[in-house]
Amino acid sequence: MTVLPTRHDEAWRYSDIDALARAWPLPAPESIIVPADGTFARTIIQDGGTIHQLDIAIGKGATAAIHVLNIGGEYGRVELNVTLHEKADFKLGAVQIGGGTQTLEVITTVTHAEPGATSSQIVRSVLAGTATGTYLGKVAVARDAQQTDSVQSVKAMLLDRSATANAKPELEIYADDVKCAHGCAIGELDAMGLFYLQARGITPAEAKKLMLQAFVAGVFEGAANEEALTEAALAKLGDLV
Amino acid sequence: MLQINNLHANVGDKPILKGLTLSLNAGEIHAVMGPNGAGKSTLGYVLSGRPGYEVTEGSVTFNGQDLLALEPHERAAAGLFLGFQYPVEIPGVSNVQFLREALNAQRKYRGEAPLTGGEFLKVAREQAGALGMDMEMLKRPVNVGFSGGEKKRNEMVQMGIIDPALAILDETDSGLDIDALRTVGDGINRIMRKPDKAVLLITHYQRLLDYVKPDFVHVLDGGRITRTGGAELALELERDGYKELAA
Questions:
Q1: Of A44, A125, A215, B198, which is least surrounded by CB within 10 A?
Q2: How many CA atoms lie within 13 A of A81 on its CB side?
Q3: What is the spatial distance between Cα B55 and Cα A180, in angstroms, rounded to a whole number?
């Protein structure tokens, strides 16, 4: 792409175009090829306002797991373009936590090109201030990709009424024997739960933190540095509440 | 210990408490009974500081402190415990973590050293055991998937661990079978019937009072205390109903 995208491009619709312009032009996406029966794992901690673009091709019977913590900078974006071959498996666990005027995005295109592949995407966003958190996730299933099994679970928690969450799971299915589950929820912390915790002596900030910790729990399961990721997420949550 | 004087409170724009006056001394157990909609639960929420429950007039003093000036967590640290009528489910947060944080937050507020994990578990095991609750349940997320009776029992375990000076128990007896009622009643007596503690039992029915004998019974109706008596008043209410009494 040589021309700067505009918000008319669906994939950049909620982006911070000014911040993007400063980073433009972007380097070519990193290309990753996981050979047949191979395994690949990567953790992406976006803490400096950077844009990560990965093209991942997962060979027959191979697996790839990506864990994302998207928390830093005015504009942070993690974009994954994944192609699954026969019986390949892709897992994404992403947490984005933003406050102030931050714009954070996780954009995925997962293509089930051949039969029997599985994909699972879990995305949790916590947003405060006037921050914007976006997940655009397209799952495409090719005509021959029968027995595809794909899951998208997307949830966002708004700490202030002025924050914005966009969530768009999108399915494009050309096969007729597939399972493609997708769920989306945007909400606020349960006021009664917060009161219950405070009535037992927990400060308002700690009560929020405890509930948010529960909200993002499990997303980093299986990551090599699960503990470090969780700790970094908690520290960022602590800044927000 | 607790002096409530001419308390008026609104929920939204609706006045619920309309001049409630009540006084509890250390060593006493008081029961507040009354028909639906009389303001019983509102009283518990106002005393514990639930957002949306606005005091418009009157005062509440707790051990010499202006209770209404404190935040909910400060009231807890000052020694006030509210047993919820409907204990809240908090997915993803374990009972053990919740209670340890709660207890240590209170200790910190009072300038006491935090309990270590081992010290806390010892207390938790003792209290859970005394109330017939499995330690496995304490490791599960707070109240998630608990039956009504288990939730109430969990409230009592929490009370035992936190060891408050004043417990306001909002219909702790509702949803309990006969055995659980006895267990909860025994728990209240064991934890709270002490010379330096007091209890405000909010209830519809006499049956809990068979196990926890109150020193005073108050009738709350239309947002105020309309009658006060001894334990025998509860029996009278059970026999004649609130309507008869109001007439």
A1: A44
A2: 10
A3: 52
Q: Using N-to-C axis directions, what is the helix angle for B148-162 and B117-130, rounded to 10°?
A: 130
Place of tokens 């639960």: B41
The set of residues, in sequence order, having a beta carbon less than 8 Å from that of B99 and lying 6+ positions away, is: A200, B120, B124, B138, B158, B161, B162
Could you tell me which CATH number the domain at B2-246 has?
A: 3.40.50.300
pLDDT in tens, B177-206: 888 888 899 999 999 999 999 999 998 888
Cα pseudo-dihedral A91, A96, A102, A108, rounded to 10: 20
What residues does each domain of chain B span? 2-246
Distance CA A79, CA A92 (A): 12
Q: In what order do the strands lie in the sheet with B198-203?
A: B80-83, B166-170, B198-203, B29-33, B216-221, B224-229
The Cα A136–Cα A107 span in angstroms is 5
* Rounded Cα distance, B78 and B59, in Å: 17
Q: Element (H or E) spanning A196, and its range?
A: helix A191-199
Tell whether B60 is within 8 A of chain A (Cβ). Answer: no
| Residue A79: closest CA among A102, A56, A103, A48 | A56
Distance CA B60, CA B68 (A): 6
Q: Which positions 159-218 of B are in contact with A (Cβ < 8 Å)?
A: 162
Give pTM, 2 decimals: 0.88
pLDDT in tens, B88-126: 999 888 999 999 999 999 999 989 999 999 999 999 999
- Choose from B48, B82, B88 for mutation: most chain A CBs within 10 A: B88
How far apart are the C-alpha atoms of B99 and B82, rounded to whole Å? 14
Give the ranges where chain B is alpha helix by DSSP (H).
Answer: 40-48, 72-77, 95-109, 117-130, 135-139, 148-162, 178-192, 207-211, 231-246
Look-up of token digits 């640290």: B77
Instruction: Give A205→chain B minimum CA distance, Å.
Output: 11
The answer to whether residue B48 neighbours chain A at the CB level (below 8 Å) is: yes
Q: Cα separation of B209 and B221, whole Å?
A: 19
> Would an 8 Å CB–CB cutoff place A190 in contact with chain B?
yes
